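Example record

One chain of 925 residues, shown exactly as stored in the release files.
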Amino acid sequence: MRTLESQLEIWYARAEHFFSVPDPEGVFFRCAGASLAEREAARLLGRREGVSRSAVLTRMCTEPYRERAIDLCDDVLGSRVRFERACDELAEAAIAYGQAVDEAEWDWRPVCLLPAGGLFFLLLIWGLLIPLVLLVAAAGVVTWLHVRGSAVWSNLRQCLRAAAAKFRWLVHRVSAGMCAVEWAETLQREGTGHAAVVVIREMLGEDPDSLLVRDGREDGLRTPRAAHYVVENAALLQLKRKLQQIEGGTIAICGPRGSGKTTLLESAVRAADFGVMAQAPASYTPHDFLVSLSVRLCQTYVRDSGKPVPEFTRLSPFERLGRRLRAVGKRVGRWALFAVPAAALVVLGSAASVRALYSDNLPAGAHLVSVASERVSRGGVQMWQGHSVTSSMLVTVVGLLWWRGRRRAGVVRVLLQIPLVFAGLLGLLLVAAVARDLATDKEIFFQLKQVDTRTSLVLAVLLIAWESCRTAKESEGELSIGPYEISARGVFRPLTYLVGGLFLVLLLRNDQVQALLANPANPLRLAALVVAALLLRIGLWKPGPAESPLVMRCQDYLYRLQTVQSSSNALSSSAAQVLTLGTAHTSALSTLPVSFPDLVDDFRRLLGLIAAEKARAGKVVVIAIDEVDRLGSDTQALAFLSEIKAILGVPDVYYLISVAEDVGAAFVRRGLPHRDVTDSSLDDILHVQPSTLEESREILSSRSETLTGPYAALAHALSGGGLRDLLRYGLQILEMQEKSQSNELTEISRHLILEELSETLAGFRTLLSKHQFTRSTSTILGSFGALVRDLQLPCPCAVVSLRPTLERFAFYGTADHPDTAANPDLVDTTRQLIEEASTYAYFSLTLLDIFSSSGLDRRTSLAAAFGREGDLQRLADARQELGISPYSARTLLDGIRAAWTLPLQPRINESIPLQRASDCSIHTA
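Predicted structure tokens for this chain:
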């Protein structure tokens, strides 16, 4: 929806094109300038040197770029041809007008315009007669001058020709202005709008997409669980296919942590007609979990049925009764505040008319009632005495049918509807009677004929203006005036009241309207319409739906699960005043907590009833159980599945359970050679793979307009395709942009990669501090410590000797590295940690070499020639391989570096340049 400000800008641009000199080059210049103000082009202006608005506009107006922009227009309707033809016709009309002015001896403007203006003024003041007489007289004088051949007639004829030429020019000018507006809108929409972005990207040089411009929405990165940002990836489509292939069953969702299993389950629950989402307990407690799942199931069904979930409070019965009475009192008081005054005013206004109607029709009504009652009583006496055999048999049959219909809900429903239908028909008859009375009232038609045309026209214009203001008031547009934002509601609401009040004032001040309102029958007609409205409202009333037995069962089950019920009874009796003989008895009853087998039976029975009801309506029931993969180990997860296995397998119910990859692997290996709980608990399994580079770009583009392709590739490489880490790195990219105060990918990626490397190596160093080192094994530890210290230097910008240290540690473990053979005494666990840290440093070094150098698009094209190893997706594959083995990850990184023509051994005397700041206290220029 366009805002009020954008609509005003559109109309201003149209007015500018219309009133400017019709010129193709001028139209193109204005369209090009307007295209540079659009968001897509404006966000790139000034981001690099030489890319200013004036420079881009100058280049766009050159011949090659102008023709390219015009060629982009798919001008099917021929607006450009019409505009050029209108310009030519306007030029011809201007030439003809100039010739006519040169031939005329008199100035045509006072000769033609002054008489025309005078005639128009007389037409407004005295009507049509006097101007018509003057025109006839002027025609006679002109004819007499023409017959005599006077020079006045010759000069007058030349003035008329000049006026006609001016009018012809004016028609062509309006036509040219309208064609200019039409061609300008087509040109800006299809030509200059796209051409401006192309020209700016050309002037930006290499890697225009590597600019990070923060002017779009980024809320999707801060709300990872927001439903409207979910993208249909391969896992979600595969889950939909599996749900369509089977009618109920248990499907396990497995995958690495952070791959989006929870998002997948939430999407499936939202897409289902009836879905319940439950979290598995952190500790192994199937009983508590099943109680929680049962409560959630009952609450979801009650809400889905439109009923309130019962609240369990500790208030006394008197306190609850008091709250209910207060609530009822508030509702009744609010109703009475409006109902009583309204009824009093209506009764006061229509009492006289109703009383007169009652007095006039009372004898006829009493006679009609007496005749009807006499006939009914006579017929009853005849049936009682046996004189009317047919009526007796008919009444007997009706009585028997009435008794048989006592258990038929349809009969009862029809009987209850009879008074409502009768009330509705009576209301319609009253409306028809009022309409007939109005149509036959000759006095009303006489007063309507007396209303003059001018008053009717003014009232119609005010009514149209009121309706227009009322419609504009409901829009959500906003108008920016300086620092203030004024909504359309704030502008048009007072205008609506003002125009409506003016309409009522003019309407009530009119004599004919006052005469119409003073009709003696109007109060009675109005009272009849009020009664008709009440009867129609009664006729349209429908009783609320009865509470279904299943809803009541869910509510009772909630009481059973969430409360402890107890009751006690006491009985005592005594006799005699002096000698007392009596008995006393007290009993107490308390419910026991529901056992696990009872929970299972009740849950299956209740869920089966709900699923059967939904299945009859063609609806899908989904129960999603999340966080099973966080129970600790695969053994605990399998034990949990074996305990809750009893609630699985309910017909027409889909169970979706997120499990760890170990459990998924056990299902895949079913029967080879042993069986476990997955064989009988799971019907199918869905492996959630890390997202591909294309999917990551789609996910980030749906959540942020700032992160372009290169930044999506960087976040994808660092995260390995995991959804959770992908969004986290997207936020970190924006944070690094603020930290580096740069819009270039080379600076932002360098800060992000080095900061991530610093945090990761600090964690490895903490783990290594728990191991023992000797003098002979401390070489690599010293290299590790030097790298960590260089990364943690409080220097924001200077050129430090970081690369030699980083490469020395990153290439640790290679065959030609001196430290590989120099530390044979390292413990296996220590060596493993060092290998993992070294491989991660090798991965970070590769990312630095790829993303922190200019010309990423060009280098990506060159690397793609090497095949799969040159694809940016392989960086994410290497990040995933780091979680499996540092040795296979290093082999994969070697292939990537070879495809990108990066060295496979340390280079000497090279550094990673960071952005230099003049106020650095550590490194001076």
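Notes: Residues 73 and 187 are 6 Å apart (CA to CA).
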